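Workshop exercise sheet. Pairs work together: one partner reads the sequence aloud, the other fills in the structure field after running the prediction. Swap roles for the next sheet.
Pair: D.N. / O.F.
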Amino acid sequence: MVFLSLAKSFRRCESLRQTVANTKNAQIHIVVIDTLENIYQNISSSFYDLVIVDECHRSININRKLIFDHFLCPRIGLTATPRKAIAAKGKDISEEDLAILDTYKLFGCETGEPDYQFDLTRGIDEGFLAPYQVLSIETELTKLAREKGVEFSYVLDPDERKRIELDQQKKLMLEQLERKYISEDRCLRIAEEIKTHTEYGEKVLLFGVSQAHCIMLTKALNKVFATSEDETSPRYAEAIISDNNDLNATFKKWFKDIHHKPFIAVSVDIMGTGVDIPCVRYISFAALTKSVGKYVQMLGRGTRLDPKTGKFSFKVLDFVRLCAAMEDNGKGTPKPNIKVVNGKGGGDGGIYEPKGEWFIIDNPDPAHLIQRVYLHGDKIQVIDNIPMEKARALFEEELEKADKPEIVDIKKKVEKDKEYEPSADDVETIKDWAKKPEVYLDEGQLQKVYDFKQGSIWDFFLHALKIKKIPTPKERIEHGFDSYLKTYSFNDDQIHILQDIKDIFAENITQKRRITAQEIFDNPVYMRIIGADYQAVNQKFDNRLPQVFEELQTTFRV
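Structure field:
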């Protein structure tokens, strides 16, 4: 979206993917910061006259600081949710370390005030943003979970719905609900309330707790709003949670169209930032957060005015009392919206009364599966859900035997010159090939398959051809560790301890297990390797060991 907007005003605007070599004459480079992190050392420090960082609150770690300090030019940070770093009581943290974690200091605002600000209230008061009102809706189960906790001694299998007795009775508070254990009845109640308090066909953005929760909410919503045409996608409600970038892009495109289904989008984080859908008239919360920044980001999805569709205000439907926790009762004076969608109105669905006691469904998040889909125009067909190992083998096997002339030509180029830099057309050709029936995988899915979120489809292409291997997690840890040591002045004793911690962390990562600093020192074997207990090591790092460990993990990029 940024690229398209700037390209209208600047003829020489290029998207930077692998190197500046092919785009060095462009006036503006648009680049994902993860990509820049991989290539910035190959770019002259005086190459840019200005660096602008959007969503800069996401850019506060040691790796990002290395990038910003590399370029000798002014930098501007843009964010709706800046962060301040304040040392915890009793902790002695250097100003240099605090600056890395502080949005203001990282961008030169030493006083803690931005150079320019335009807050939500001012935007509403001056007519640039939509006012809103808050409607708090609490079901009986939600109230019980918030006040006393939900107790249960059995669950139902989500596939066969068989009763499974638990070894002991469980008790979940509201903040624990809808993660591993999903309440089907509560999802239905929320769906009924949404039908009651919205107009049929108007756009609703609903935030859930987990992928499993979003799927259950989507099923409940489609049950409540069901029509005969809702049997295939796009349905009245869709969960936008997939790792498939093309599928997400298609759902987002449909959701932006006020006359096109889905009318309700259910998401965890994907729709929380980086999306611009002015026609949204309802923001619904079915998930809690303690982060003010995340709350503002989610709320902000509804603040865009959209006069062409008659949207001048929006409503918040709060099912978890999140707005009350944020002390938000709404802002501005809501204005009437123009009703542009005809059809069955809201409010006639009644209230779902569950029969018997509340029950809990055990529905784990299927994060280990890759969903392959076929997109063709306005049609979506789910092909299958396959393990990541199978998806990886499929991609590599199909590429090895690919006979499409354009793919064969690119393969010959890289086999002849292992340093070959792809053109934009080359990259698009590979992406198009990967979408064909033989593969059905996109860049986002391959990042998950290869466990390398910074990777591009070109990286995976070279790896599959055995031209250039993707760095293993252990190699990334070693590279990040070396960069970290160059950033700070540690003494020999501290470096020796950090090397031991790094080796322990790397060993656990290779076994697909993450480990905390406390877990390291709770393990007698690891403690013998390091040669000291937690308290002694923490003192050697001036009581900053937790922060040092967190910084290390950030630089490891795994």
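Discussion prompt: Residues 185 and 354 are 7 Å apart (CA to CA). What would you look at next?
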